[in-house]
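Help needed: design a sequence for this.
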């Protein structure tokens, strides 16, 4: 089991969602976030104030998948989220110790299977 976290452009979120759905991955959490990349997060001084520029609306997705779905999920996100311009985001993959389904009490892969 892995947890995949992906930070993508908000403008690409629908494409990413559709791409995952086509691969039968219809479950994830998502958050509106702010962040800095190398090219963003510059600051300007304007009329005595300091302002952040270059924020791009971003969504972070968190998806827990069993091993057979890991590569599929990564490819689905990467292909749908890519523009080729700086700032397309990042995908992080974590080993996951366990998951517990609160309703059924099932754990591990069984907790996330239908
Ligand atoms: N090392 C990191 N740790 C945590 N979040 C990151 C990291 N790098 C990027 N991010 C997140 O991804 C968003 C987009 O950053 P990204 O790396 O895609 O842009 P960039 O560095 O400006 O350009 P690029 O990497 O495409 O040259 C950031 O705003 C931030 O939320
Ligand atoms: Mg970067």
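Sure. Designed sequence:
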């Amino acid at each position: 089991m892995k947890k995949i976290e992906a930070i993508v452009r908000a403008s690409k979120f629908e494409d990413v969602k559709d791409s995952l759905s086509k691969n039968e991955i219809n479950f994830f959490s998502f958050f509106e976030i702010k962040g800095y990349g190398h090219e963003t997060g510059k600051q300007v001084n304007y009329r005595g104030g300091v302002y952040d520029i270059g924020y791009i609306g971003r969504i972070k997705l968190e998806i827990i998948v069993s091993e057979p779905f890991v590569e599929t999920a990564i490819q689905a996100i990467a292909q749908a989220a890519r523009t080729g311009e700086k700032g397309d985001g990042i995908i992080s993959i974590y080993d996951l110790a366990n998951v517990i389904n609160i309703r059924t009490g099932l754990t591990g892969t069984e907790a996330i299977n239908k």
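Residues 67-81 form the longest helix (15 residues).
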